[in-house]
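Entry type: protein chain
Record version: 2
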Amino acid sequence: MNLAQLLARSARQRPELAALAVGRTAVRSYGELAGRTARLGASLRAKFNLAAGERVALAMRNCVEFYEVLFACWHAGLVAVPMNAKLHAREFAYILQNSGARLAFVTPDLEAAVPAGISVASADFEALFDQTPKAPAEVAPDDPAWLFYTSGTTGMPKGATLTHRNLLFMTQAYFADIDKLEPGDSILHAAPLSHGSGLYGLAHFAAGAVNVLPESGHFEPEEIFDLLEAWPNVSFFAAPTMIVRLLASRAARAPTNLKTITYGGAPMYVSDSLRAIELFGPRLYQLYGQGESPMTITGLTQAMHAARYKLESCGVPRLGVEVRILGDDDAQLAPGETGEIVTRSDCVMAGYWNDPQASARALRGGWLRTGDVGSLDEEGFLTLKDRSKDLIISGGANIYPREIEEVLLRHPAVAECSVVGRPHPEWGEEVVAFVVARGRIAPQDLDRLCLENIARFKRPREYLFVEALPKNNYGKVLKTELRRQLSLPSGSHGMAQ
């Protein structure tokens, strides 16, 4: 089934219901939104000569037009390529080239970063709604719908190919495991639409709920608490760092209209979970997923939060999802033993876009190799022990050290470097770079180098200059030792030169 039918079905049944809102104001009904996406979809095929299966990129901050373009792509049988609005211009360019996107839509703030894009605030964009709408295109369940670009351990982004089947399974799993939604319920998009929050909008469109965008366009705790009181039966997806910021806000109060907070994307400390339960009540659902199996591997339910049961875990496999722990020889391990987490379900991606070798490695034996390390107990609860390779998660965003290291090594005075994450009370982790220098280096020069090549949020917050990096007998840098050094009292490791 074409995912465009999720919107079309709700529009047929309740065209008058609000589908999209900004702040406290509804701006699109289901009838209006379905009509606009159908007309825009017709324009994409007619005016740009796009064939079925071609890619359209979205470089957009949270806005009403994001969902108009997304559903228009599916209506026309095209593949959407949503991109993180925080990326650097070079990163946008790489994704556009790698995906083969024929067309890009941008919000005004990103026009300079994606100069060939069509601004959704322009007259050119509005002129695309003049076509006669057609029925949603026929697509096969395993046709690509969304290319979800997620960095690999090399730092080069890879496009996880999510099919119509994958995202329909994810949507149905929401109803099965998280919430029963009703027409008129609401979801608040406090996190980027290009990632988890946008994906969970699909279940709410399918149910006839209203998708609410903060008027500020970003996450502001006071605004979030205000909107949680303004809309009925409201849910939202949050990174753990966002929950911590809500708990610390002067505006913090128990919202009366809150239905569910789903959270994931980074570890949640048990102490923070307990504080969240005290404020929000038993309305929390923790999920564990990856871009390659979007939002859908395991879950810790609202009832488990209410009982304070196994909060240190990330729950049990979702309905229709298999999870195993494999050893180095790919043999299945017994409960309690630690190994690589693998999963199998209709939510697992078809593969990486135009990368058959990486696809074969990730899907070896028919299971998605998550790269994460963990264990299953006798009851089937999954506990994460470590994260894939040396991934840093800051503010819910994945940051891969190798990408930053390769940029720093472009500086002629950097002999060696290694990047690790340091615990941060608000963001979860912050990026720190250990640098072996051939001569004097000004930290601001390294900052400038990073800002010219990668997104600002990936830039190291501190540079520690050392005589040498700790290594094992095979010459591999011991990042565990670097993290240990970060925990030592100030002044016990090398200082900036």
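Comment: The CA atoms of residues 270 and 312 lie 6 Å apart.
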